[in-house]
Amino acid sequence: MDTMSVNVATARSEAPVAGARESARAFLERLAQPAIATEAADAVVLVVSELVTNALRHGGGTCALGLTEHPDSIEVSVRDRSPQAPRMRTPDLNGDTGGFGWPMVNRLARATAVTRRTAGGKTVSALLAR
Q: Averaged over 34-56, what is the pLDDT?
């Protein structure tokens, strides 16, 4: 089983999220055979992007990204300092406040979970088909 962990911090640009996406792509390229299908890899990268963006925006400015290979799935986990769980809400069609990411993550993933950490904060996990 292959695992990877990356620490991500807020910056004034999109660099932290882009770096998380690149880390996810590199992780997926190193996977044991059989290699992950292109569509499944794209879904993993999209979920990484959404969860890291949400953690940086709403979770205290820093987060840790974890990726774990399972025989039939890839687990994406993002740990941040906020105890507040993501919530479903009506997307803002005017583009001001978002609201599209968490519903999309839930549609792409086989399962999602939010685990509060005793030391503070939470981990948001998504399990995606391989």
A: 92
